[in-house]
Design goal:
heterodimer; A: 282 residues; mainly alpha; ABC transporter involved in vitamin B12 uptake, BtuC; 12 helices; 72% helix; B: 293 residues; globular
């Protein structure tokens, strides 16, 4: 037991990061499962992080109240974003949502309430490990319950063949809006927790690089299931720490692993589990 | 004052356009978004810096770096895109593998050069003669950069319009399967496309480095996303559109700075891009304009 506590004391920061990262990866996996390459997760995350931080720092709201309002805000923004992009698919949807993310970042950079480029500091560090993992379990349970409903069936149908989905009476627009909003809600939860697990936040925390990172977690883990997102976020969060001895080669290793997974394990790490072997196809 | 700003916008826009034509060429031919384009842009700038530091005259260092960037483009295709093409992997996966290559290139550059900013010490960039033309002032360096970008874009336009290779590239862009049936060697044509696109991106990197006489690891960051906006403005896959988009961006940026709106500049840029995508997903000049390039 004390060995376990020592381990926790030594790695608590990393453990918290893994939990937050897993929530963020899950949020993107929701829209990827609906076949939407919507890359605004970092923006939803940022919106919630700022809302929650401002309520905590300026208005001294308790943690859970700030999280609730923050998640509401990111959900509403995500649902509203779904409307203008409803006709965009594939790369065009990706670019439009990347553009949206940049707009959010520039706005955060220029408003006084968000502290401009310096961001906001001295955020109460009250997102403890139990809070973060409680949230992760909540998200996991929600996604699990949803996966047993007709909603999941409709989502899968929209992903596989939008026209067939329309043909059997699925309201494609509503499914897309709901999955984007759900992704926005989960990203918002991740963002609020991220803020409360850091001492300060700045607009660059929620820029395109963050978005790339979340996307990489999902793809490396496997986009076909939420488990892939979970696995990808966990493995890639631990990896930089685990290969610290490689010092100068750390970054390059990240790139190589990413490429290797894409080339040799197209379904992501989670697919290796099921297949048992790595089939090399180049 | 406004004439001077527009001239500055023209200089800036030429480099944006050069970057964007390579970006859009790959999209037009392969329908993939190459997020390693900006990494090659940066790598070429460093290569030119090293060549110049080793005593190679600037024009030769420029050409050498552009050729090197072209070769990197071919390698990029072989490593990150060709295997995926072979199994019809869709649009998401190539986008990610290009991020992987971008990370690797960035890590290698950091390993070689560290994080410090580099300056070209030869060629007298900072003491270049100033030309005054009525109310306009500019340096010979700015003029040379502008002319180099224009010449390269004209060469690209000539290749696409008047050579066999250009016809093959346009055929592959139009319909890959039909082109293959007609005897076009797909892989070689795609390799050539990557060489051209990446050498132009690399050239844009060198010119950007010369323009500000500064080469940094993160110099590719802003242009990566702005380049996206430019090719959307011009219509993805349209080379002419990318050139026009580049000049529009250059003008808008310098005017925004002149009128004190620089803080909101990028929000406006991406806002316009967003609205354009929503209203007209194929951009101002249509998607398949590569045919008529």
């Amino acid at each position: 037991m004390s060995a376990l506590l020592d381990f926790y004391a030594k790695h608590s920061r990393l453990i918290d990061q893994i939990g937050v990262n897993a929530i963020l990866a899950l949020s993107l996996s929701v829209s990827l499962q609906a076949g939407q390459l919507a890359l605004a997760q970092a923006a939803f995350m940022g919106i919630a992080a700022y809302v929650s931080t401002i309520l905590a720092v300026n208005a001294h709201w308790p943690l859970f109240a700030t999280i609730a309002v923050a998640v509401l805000a990111s959900t509403v923004v995500a649902a509203l974003l779904a409307y203008p992009v409803r006709r965009l698919r594939g790369v065009f949807l990706a670019i439009a949502t990347i553009g949206f993310g940049e707009i959010v970042r520039v706005v955060a950079n220029n408003l006084s309430i968000t502290g401009g480029a310096e961001g906001i500091s001295s955020i109460p560090n009250d997102a403890t490990t139990p809070v973060i993992y409680g949230a992760l379990v909540l998200v996991g349970l929600t996604l699990f319950v949803l996966s047993r409903t007709k909603f999941a069936l409709a989502v899968a149908l929209v992903r596989e063949d939008e026209y067939a989905a329309r043909g059997v009476g699925v309201d494609v627009g509503t499914i897309r809006t709901l999955s984007l909003a759900l992704g926005g809600a989960i990203a918002g939860l991740g963002g609020a927790l991220y803020a409360h697990a850091s001492f300060f936040i700045t607009p660059t925390d929620f820029g395109f690089q963050r978005m790339e990172q979340i996307l990489v977690w999902c793809v490396v883990g496997g986009v076909t299931s939420p488990l892939g997102a979970l696995l990808g976020a966990t493995v890639l969060s631990i990896l930089p720490e685990a290969i610290r001895f490689l010092a100068d080669y750390r970054e390059i290793t990240n790139g190589v692993i990413l490429l290797a997974v894409i080339l040799f394990a197209p379904g992501g790490l989670s697919s290796l589990w099921r297949r048992g072997t790595i089939r090399v196809r180049v | 004052m406004i004439a001077q700003q527009l001239l500055n916008g023209l200089f800036l826009g030429a480099v944006y356009a050069l970057f964007a034509v390579g970006y859009t060429l790959v999209f037009g031919v392969l329908d993939i978004l190459n997020l390693a384009h900006a990494a090659i842009f940066t790598a070429a700038a460093f290569a030119a810096f090293s060549l110049a530091a080793a005593g190679v005259p600037l024009p030769l260092a420029f050409l050498g770096a552009a050729v090197l960037a072209g070769i990197m483009g071919i390698l990029l295709d072989r490593v990150a895109f060709a295997p995926l093409r072979a199994r019809n992997a869709g649009t998401l996966v190539p986008l990610i593998s290009s991020i992987g290559v971008a990370i690797i290139i960035g890590a290698i550059l950091r390993g070689i050069y560290g994080v410090d900013e580099r300056h070209f010490t030869v060629g007298g960039l900072d003491t270049a003669p100033v030309i005054r033309l009525g109310p306009l002032t500019f340096t010979t360096v700015e003029l040379t950069i502008f002319l180099a970008a224009i010449v390269l874009m004209l060469v690209l336009s000539w290749i696409l319009r008047a050579t066999t290779l250009g016809r093959r590239i346009r055929a592959v862009a139009e319909d890959r399967v039909a082109a293959a049936l007609l005897g076009v060697d797909l892989e070689r044509t795609i390799a050539a496309t990557f060489f051209i696109a990446s050498s132009l991106g690399g050239a844009a990197g060198v010119l950007t480095g010369l323009e500000y006489n500064s080469v940094t690891l993160d110099m590719g960051g802003p242009i990566e996303l702005k380049g996206l906006a430019v090719i959307i403005l011009g219509g993805m896959g349209s080379v002419t559109g990318a050139v026009i988009g580049g000049f529009i961006l250059g003008a808008v940026e310098t005017l925004a700075i002149a009128y004190g709106l620089s803080a909101w500049r990028d929000a406006v840029l991406f806002g316009v891009m967003f609205l354009l995508l929503v209203a007209r997903p194929t951009g101002l000049f249509g998607k398949r304009a590569l045919r008529a390039a």
